[in-house]
Specification:
This is Iron complex transport system ATP-binding protein. It comes from Sphaerisporangium rubeum. Keywords: ATP-binding, Nucleotide-binding, Translocase, Transport. The strands form 3 sheets. A 6-stranded mixed β-sheet has the order 6-7-8-3-9-10, sandwiched between helices. Strands 2-1-4-5 form a 4-stranded antiparallel β-sheet, with helices on one face. Helices cover about 30% and strands about 25% of the residues. The protein has one domain: P-loop containing nucleotide triphosphate hydrolases (Rossmann fold, 3-Layer(aba) Sandwich). The chain contains 9 helices and 12 strands. The protein is α/β, with parallel strands linked by helices and about 260 residues long. α4 packs across α5. The protein binds adenosine-5'-triphosphate. Adenosine-5'-triphosphate binds next to α1.
Amino acid sequence: MTGRSGGVVVTGLSADLDGRPVLSGVGLTAAPGEWLAVIGPNGAGKTTLLRAMSGLLDVRGDVLVGGTAVRGLPARRRARLMAYAPQTPLLPPALTVREYALLGRTPYIPYLGRESRHDRDVTWSVLERLDLTGLATRPLGHLSGGERQRVVIARALAQQAPVLLLDEPTTALDLGHQQQVLELLDSLRLADGLTVVTTLHDLGLAAQYADTLLLLADGRPVAAGPPGDVLTEPVLSRHFAAHVAVTPGRDGRPQVHLVRPGGR
Ligand SMILES: Nc1ncnc2c1ncn2[C@@H]1O[C@H](COP(=O)(O)OP(=O)(O)OP(=O)(O)O)[C@@H](O)[C@H]1O
């Protein structure tokens, strides 16, 4: 998976849903090879931001990948620039794991054409890297939640776009598979310059893996920067209404702990 060129720049992104503003003036920049995590309390607009960036919502503002404006591009061209893995996609239950992951190659397959050997090879190597080859012929309806989540990520990776948007990629995964997926993303961004934008509820993982955090609250950006700048006790208690302690981890990145109110 080489030869990506990308980086994403978002400016002034605003969206209304049901006549209510859900995103207001959101901007972000992630260079090629950078990992940006979008954090924030429930309902802050994290999923909406990813959907808006991926072109699934009618929004105001600009989204550029490698300098190309993606809004308004035909879906196939957009899909070569940006891959999006939603948190809970609708999966056709009869499709096999391999068939579903191969759908990631759709932007490269000519109309009325068939997938090439290269498309099959790319898909298989992604399945291998996500430990999914043993499930290749299994229908999606027969998978566990965590297996389904990895298959959705596999489809997005098979797309080989320079920018990857992942909505809560680890929520259904056990510890080992969380680490496997996050380490794979980390190696792809370091080796190939893949730009990774994830939403992450787990602030510990966000601090460990992301270069930059963007904190949303009520659809607005309220803090952005390296984990140590964003994950501070005052910022977290204000925006998450939580009692927390933030301590430096072994690698110097912040660790966030919930503290029981009343000192129990
Ligand atoms: N289709 C929709 N129509 C109307 N309102 C919506 C729609 N989808 C989301 N919303 C609202 O937009 C706001 C932002 O939702 P969004 O799913 O982006 O939040 P989130 O930060 O991802 O939340 P969570 O952490 O709970 O997943 C919420 O108030 C939600 O109720």
